Amino acid sequence: MALSGLRVTQIVFVISNILFLIMGIAMLVVGAYLQITSSSYVSLLPSDDFFTASALLIASGIVVIVVCAIGFFGVWMQSQCIILIYMLCVLIILALSIAAGIIAYVFYGEIESELRNRLLEGLKDKEKRKSWDEIQQKERCCGVTNYKDWYGLVDPDYPSNLPDSCCDGPNCGSQGTTVAYDEGCYEKGKEWIQDNFYALGAAGITLGVLQVILVAVSCFLLVMMRREKKNFA
To answer: Are residues 176 and 75 located together in one domain of the fold?
Structure first.
């Protein structure tokens, strides 16, 4: 028996909504993962901007999951009103996603310079010294731009002294620049931001395409439901 146009549209809608739901769950999981296992660079920043961003990702995932539930309920009830509400919600999410993408693209260059400035601020915070030691040992780098960023911060009486994490061996920091790592940690942090920026960009494009498909399928579903209703009238 051949499937009706409405039935086919409902199946396409459900499949698309399942993919949307998976994206929402992924956003929730990634946001939670970033909250729990953030990069060492995050702990060097003097603000909670990163955690605000990951919390926003978690909130977005929850919103997507709720909207998907509305879509499933609407197609199950075959309610034009609920499907319309669902479509409007997807349109709002799509508009916000486009706005966020444009803002991220426009201010991407400023994010890099802001990272440098904030790392320099974090360098002067003694409470973040342990985090600096961890990142410098792991990445084999020293300071933000280079080892000179540490001048006068470790021991005011001996300005050229560096943290021991800036070099190999115990108490090597007292030997100053002769044993220090040449590369600064800023470039390493910028690479980490770029990797995550591109990954989030790819995910955003995928989500945007899926949302456009969902809006189109929702419109077609509404048309088919109205046509079906007229046929039975």
So the answer is: no
Band of pLDDT at residue 18, cut at 50, 70 and 90: very high
Residues of the domain holding 87: 5-111+194-232
Query: What is the pTM assigned to this prediction?
Result: 0.73
Domain presence at residue 120 = no
Q: Are 163 and 132 in contact (CB under 8 A)?
A: yes
Alpha helices (runs of H) in the chain, residue ranges in sequence order:
5-36, 40-44, 49-77, 80-106, 108-123, 129-139, 186-232
Mean pLDDT of 135-160: 87
Sequential DSSP letters for 206-220: HHHHHHHHHHHHHHH
**Does 76 share its domain with 163?**
no
Q: What is the pLDDT of residues 190-208, one digit of tens each?
A: 777 777 777 777 777 888 8
208 is a domain residue = yes
Under 8 Å CB-to-CB from 162, ≥6 apart: which residues?
A: 142, 147, 150, 154, 173, 176, 177, 180
